[in-house]
Design goal:
The complex is a heterodimer of chains A (about 325) and B (about 425). Chain A is of the alpha/beta class and about 325 residues long. Chain A has helices at about 25-40, 70-80, 100-110, 125-130, 150-165, 180-190, 220-225, 250-255, 260-265, 285-290, 295-315; strands spanning about 55-60, 85, 115-120, 135-145, 170-175, 195-200, 215-220, 230-235, 270-275. In chain A, the strands form two sheets. A five-stranded parallel sheet of chain A has the order 7-6-5-8-9. Helix content of chain B is about 30%, strand content about 20%. Chain B has helices spanning about 75-85, 100-115, 140-145, 160-170, 195-200, 205-225, 235-245, 255-260, 285-295, 310-315, 330-340, 345-350, 355-360, 410; strands spanning about 5-10, 15-25, 30-35, 45, 50-55, 55-60, 85-90, 120, 125, 150, 175-180, 190, 205, 225-230, 250-255, 300, 380-390, 415-425, 430. In chain B, β6, α1 (about 75-85) and β7 form a beta-alpha-beta unit. The longest helix of chain B is centred in the middle third of the chain and has 18 residues, at about 205-225. In chain B, α4 (about 160-170) crosses α6 and α6 runs parallel beside α7 (about 235-245). Chain B is of the alpha/beta class and about 425 residues long. Chain B is globular and about 65 Å long. The mean pLDDT of chain B is about 95. Classes of the chains: A alpha/beta (about 325), B alpha/beta (about 425). Chains A and B meet through α4 of A and α5 and α14 of B.
Chain lengths: ~325, ~425
């Protein structure tokens, strides 16, 4: 087979789209995290704006509903002085039968400079990136089960903020990993940044054995999975998985894999608890943990804006 | 028309004949193979340096007619067959409407005959509308020209219906063509494994194939129905078929050019041209399929030709329509497999000529004795190709309406050995290509 260049990098190895963390060099990730650090202070200013994307049009294309991610992308783009257009495609064009590429072609004719895309199908942003004009950039805001790279980066920012060094850490990711794009992006980012022990924790229906191929240790026992962890990332359990053939009930899941203060006591004393949100209290996480001293769930959201600013300004500055 | 094919390397895989000879053709039949000194031909084809082989027989090619003419039409797809050296092909019944009525089969055969590019052998639907409930009128459909009965890619969920279908078919000696796939387990878009997990694509596990194989093989043991197993995709599947054949279970099997040459790694960055049914599996599966085709566990190599329109392919991987064009690649991919395995040319050719005809058996009537072979007095279905020419598949080169294939040079960088120069169906030229400059 032909070795193809990673479609998110140009011939100089610079990031032109952000489609997945997979295949990105450590230096690219570190640079985005460093850039995000400089943007964090913008958020504290009286006038929360920098002119890096002035005159550029950013289209938020959400083929799948989302409030939080879309809002943070919108804020990030506006703080970079871009014009932001939100399109809720789930309720418009595709409902009328327009194909994905036709939608993109039409919006490109409106002189879009950047597309932020969320889509239910894994790989959809790759298709878009292959069909846009060379000056147009694509950011994956979550595709199917495949990737959610900005979430992965903001999780890395959060871990670095609290733990400084990645190379001594034990990170446990708990819950519905098989369906989680967040987990995949986190795993790629953690392995790239040199985390020596990554554990994927959950029942066999949600944590399949071949995840080991991604460089994680698969644990089906919660105590084993979170013992001595420095970081615990809890994943949201989607409503439709809470009962059926994947899991018998939310209650049984919480009993075995829900993060309670008692279970948290097995982790390191300074362990941080993360969650991509929105959280299901009493399903994957106990309120006492979500609101407790170990929780960094709300700082994650704040960092998310700075990280998305860093991603958008980085790719906008690189040419295909 | 009387044609003399002069001085070619004549290979008949069935008899093992492999010698430089002249082939004389008249009235649609091969008159003589040898030195034809006293034959006055209307046309002489100089085959010096070329191989003269039986026309290829492809056990799986969708023509998309009736019903899906925007994807492919008889005219374009039979032209593609001729360009690929394919002189007989079997088409599955999943057209729109489904081939479950004798009238539809007769119409299809009539239209193909008028085009006279390739012989067409339709499979009838095993159940009405392929819905898996009611058997079709198999005897009527056979009279109309069906060579067997199939569910195409729609698995039969009800084992009771499958048992009855096999019993009924066995009554008349009809062959049932089944793709082993468990209905409930077969819904994913890629093969289960590290690649699908990494890309976040829903998987089809190997057990979806082996569970169905176990069921089918048990029912064949019970009914002694003749079953052809379509598109094996896994090493475990090959092992099951090998064991069943050793035991004397009356089954035959095929594999597609895609599964023979590619793996799930070729999906790359969600390339929709790699969205195929059955899905591409891992390297160990491909190796087992290649070995199974070499040792005869798998009887035939098929193109699994399925032209897909641009609009249906240019979609996110999971939404893209599965399938690839393949008729014009069958010869080259058979030769490439044979070369990779160090097999003689006649073995590679056998899997796309006399072996598939053996699978068809009596269903093709009097053709059974000479299709897929080169025999004096037999039908003159021939493929003349240049074994030395290597080519790369570039856009716009194919006669098929479907232009999507995983073997595009841009995808795989694969060089394709062997190029068809002449195709004759019943002694009449159906395709000619000038020698490369």
């Amino acid at each position: 087979m032909l070795m193809k260049r990673n479609p998110q990098l140009n011939s100089h190895g610079e990031l032109i789209h952000l489609l997945s963390i997979e295949g990105l060099p450590r230096a690219v990730l570190t640079q985005i995290l460093d850039t995000a650090g400089t943007f964090l202070s913008v958020n504290d200013r009286e006038v929360k704006k920098v002119p890096l994307l002035r005159g550029k049009s950013v289209f938020n294309l959400f083929f799948e509903n989302s409030t939080r991610t879309r809002t943070t992308f919108e804020i990030a783009a506006k703080r970079l002085s871009a014009d932001v257009i939100n399109l809720d495609i789930a309720r418009s064009s595709t409902a009328k039968g327009e194909s994905l590429l036709d939608t993109i072609a039409n919006l490109s004719a409106m002189h879009a400079d950047m597309f932020v895309v969320r889509h239910a199908e894994s790989g959809a942003p790759y298709l878009i990136a292959q069909h846009v004009a060379p000056h147009v950039h694509v950011v994956n805001a979550g595709d199917g089960r495949h990737a959610h790279p900005t979430q992965g980066l903001l999780d890395m920012y959060t871990i670095r903020h609290y733990k400084r060094d990645f190379t001594q850490l034990t990170v446990a990711i708990v819950g519905d990993i098989v369906h989680s794009r967040v987990a995949r992006s986190d795993i790629h980012a953690l392995t790239t940044l040199g985390v020596p022990e990554i554990r994927a924790v959950g029942p066999k229906t949600l944590v399949p054995g071949d995840l080991a191929g991604m460089g994680v240790r698969v644990c089906h026992d919660m105590a084993e999975g979170i013992r001595d962890a420095d970081v615990i990332i809890m994943l949201r359990l989607q409503n439709e998985r809470m009962s059926g053939a994947m899991l018998p009930s939310a209650g049984e899941f919480f009993k075995h894999y829900g993060l309670t203060p008692e279970k948290l006591a097995l982790a390191k004393p300074d362990c941080i608890v993360m969650h991509p949100g929105p959280i299901n209290r009493g399903v994957e996480i106990d309120s006492a943990v979500a609101d407790g001293t170990h929780s960094v769930i709300l700082p994650q959201v704040t960092f998310g804006i700075a990280v998305r600013m860093a991603v958008m300004s980085t790719i906008a500055g690189n040419q295909a | 028309m009387k044609i003399l094919i002069r001085n070619g390397r004549v290979i008949d895989p069935a008899s093992g004949r492999d010698e430089v000879a002249d082939v004389a053709i008249a009235s649609g039949r091969i008159v003589s193979i040898g030195a034809a000194t006293e034959f006055s031909a209307d046309r002489v084809i100089d085959a010096t340096g070329l191989v003269v082989a039986p026309g290829l027989v492809d056990l799986a090619a969708r023509l998309r007619e009736p019903g899906q003419e925007h994807e492919g039409m008889l005219e374009s797809e039979l032209a593609a067959a001729a360009a690929g050296g394919v002189t007989s092909l079997v088409c599955p019944p999943d057209t729109d409407p489904v081939l479950d009525e004798p009238g539809l089969v007769e119409m299809l055969k009539f239209r193909a005959r008028k085009l006279s590019r390739c012989r067409l052998f339709p499979l009838g639907a095993l159940t009405r509308k392929l819905e898996g409930h009611t058997l079709t009128e198999m005897a009527e459909l056979t009279e109309a020209g069906c060579v067997g009965f199939s569910q195409a890619d729609v698995p039969l969920g009800d084992t009771q219906v499958l048992l009855r279908a096999l019993q009924y078919a066995a009554t008349y000696g009809y062959t049932v063509w089944l793709r082993p796939l468990d209905a409930a387990l077969g819904k994913g878009v890629a093969a289960s494994g590290a690649v699908a997990t990494r890309l976040g694509l829903s998987g089809v596990p190997v057990v979806a194939e082996t569970i169905a194989l176990h069921t089918i093989l048990e029912l064949v043991r019970a009914t002694r129905a003749r079953v052809h197993l379509c598109r094996l995709s896994s090493a475990a599947g090959v092992a099951l078929v090998r064991a069943a054949k050793a035991e004397g279970v009356p089954v035959t099997a095929d594999v597609s050019i895609n599964s023979l040459h590619l793996t799930d790694v070729d999906i790359g960055f969600f390339n929709p041209d790699m969205r195929l049914v059955p899905p591409l599996r891992q390297g160990a599966d491909r190796d087992a399929l290649r070995a199974g085709l070499a040792d005869g566990t798998i009887d035939a190599l098929v193109s699994d030709h399925n032209p897909v329109a641009e609009d249906a392919k240019n979609l996110p991987f999971g939404e893209a329509e599965p399938g690839a064009t393949g008729l014009e690649l069958l010869l080259s991919l058979a030769l490439r497999w044979g070369r990779d395995h160090g097999l003689p040319l006649h073995t590679a050719l056998a899997r796309v000529s006399c072996d598939p005809v053996r699978v068809l058996g009596d269903a093709v009537g009097s053709l059974a004795s000479s299709a897929g072979r080169l025999v004096e007095g037999g039908v003159a279905d021939l493929c003349v190709f240049d074994p030395a020419e290597e080519w790369a598949l570039q856009p716009g080169m194919l006669a098929s309406q479907g232009q999507h294939t995983p073997f595009a040079f841009a995808h795989t960088g694969m060089a394709l050995p062997g190029r068809v120069r002449f195709t004759l169906v019943a002694g009449t030229p159906a395709f000619e290509r000038a020698a490369a400059a």
